[in-house]
Amino acid sequence: MRTLVVDHPLVAHKLTALRDERTDSPTFRRLADELVTLLAYEATRSVAVEPVEVTTPVAVATGVRLAKPLPLVVPVLRAGLGMLDGMTRLLPTAEVGFLGMLRDETSLLATAYANRLPEDLSGREVFVLDPMLATGGTLVTTFELLVERGARSITAICLLAAPEGIATVEARFPGQGVTLVCAGVDERLNEKGYIHPGLGDAGDRLYGVV
Ligand code: URA
Fold first, then answer.
1. pTM of the entire structure?
2. Cis peptide before 26 (omega within 30 of 0)
3. Residue 117 is part of which domain span?
4. How many structural domains compose the chain?
5. CA 112 to ligand 1 centroid distance, Å
6. Does residue 14 register a pLDDT over 80?
7. Which of 190, 187, 137, 129 is nearest to 161 (CA)?
8. Ligand 1 near 195 CB (within 6 A)
9. DSSP track, 7-33
10. What is the average pLDDT across 40-49?
11. CATH of the domain at 182
12. pLDDT at 108 over 90
C-alpha cells in the first residue's frame, strides 16, 4: 500500500480545528467536508482520463475527460457519510456505493451489515471514505470486498490514521493498486482502539451520540 500524508498548511489548520474538543457538530461537519475536498484533490491525481476535443469560441482545443468506467465512491457508514459531499464536489459524475461496517469491540474485527455495491467492479477505480484508520480491521474487510469484485485500483481517504492500522492494511495488501491518502498519522492507538491523540469518535462528533 502506498501512503500519502497530505502536507499542506490548510489541511493542517482544518485538522487541528477538528481535533479540538470544543468544536461543535455543525462546525465539525463543515470542516470535515472542506478537508475531504482538499484530500480528494491529491487522491484523484492519477484518476483515469481520456483525450477529447472541444470547440471553444475561437478554435478546437484538445483536453481530457474522465474515462469510463467512471470512478466509484464508497462511504463506509456511518462516519464516512460525513465525507461524501466533500468528495463528490470534485467528482460529481462518480457513482456512489455504500458499505455499512460494524466493529466488534472485543475482537476489533469488522463485518459488513449493509452492502450496496455494483456486483462487477472490473476495471473500476474506487475511492473509499472512512475518517479514521484505527486498527485497520474495517479497511481490510472493505478492501477484500472490493478486490473480490475486481476493483482495479482502490484509494482510501481518511482524515487520520494510526501507525498500527497502516501496518495491518499494508501487511494484507502489500502490492500496487492500493493507496491511503490522509491528513495525518498520529502516535498510536490507545487501549480502547481509539487514535491517540486523534479527534475522538468521528461518527459521534459528526452526528451526535445515537
Ligand atoms: N473510530 C473513531 O471514530 N475514532 C477513533 O479514534 C478510532 C476509531
1. 0.95
2. no
3. 2-207
4. 1
5. 17
6. yes
7. 187
8. yes
9. --HHHHHHHHHHH-TT--HHHHHHHHH
10. 97
11. 3.40.50.2020
12. no
